[in-house]
Here is the input.
Amino acid sequence: MQDLKPAIEKALGKIRPLLQRDGGDVELVEVTDGVVKVRLTGACKGCPMSQMTLKQGVERMLMQEVPGLKSVQAV
Here is the structure.
C-alpha cells in the first residue's frame, strides 16, 4: 500500500487550497491496509466542523481519486 502515497498526496493537493484558504491544512500521516490517517492542522485542528471537513471533504476526495482505499481517519 506504500505505492498509494503519491496518489494520496496528489489528491490531498486538490483539497489543500480550500483548507488553507480558511487557515487550515491537512497532512498525510500513514497508509495501512487501505486506511489513510491524516492530521488536520491550523484552524482545522480545533474547528467544530473538522469531522465534517474530514468526511465530506477529505475522505470523499481521496476515495474518489484513489481506488482501493477503505477509510480516512484523523489522528
Notes: The helical segments are 5-21, 50-65. The beta strands are 24-32, 35-42, 71-74. The chain has one domain: 2-74.
